[in-house]
Amino acid sequence: MDRIIDFTIFCLEIYKLNHHMNGKDALEVFEKNDVFNYIRECYDILHTAGEGYINRDIDRYIDSRIN
Prior knowledge:
This protein is an all-alpha fold. About 80% of the residues lie in helices and about 0% in strands. It is built from five helices and no strands. Helix 1 (about 1-20) crosses helix 5. The longest helix has 17 residues, at about 1-20.
């Protein structure tokens, strides 16, 4: 389970950096859109991908929840 937690924090950090956000704002986006659960459910696929792919995938996931 620790590897999933570590990976989730990694995802939050790359999202924050790519979107030029502070940690609090990025955390709010993740919580509002249930991104933590998404990362946990898709860990097996996502953890093998690069940062760019992970960030785009999270963006697509958030967009799908909004639209």
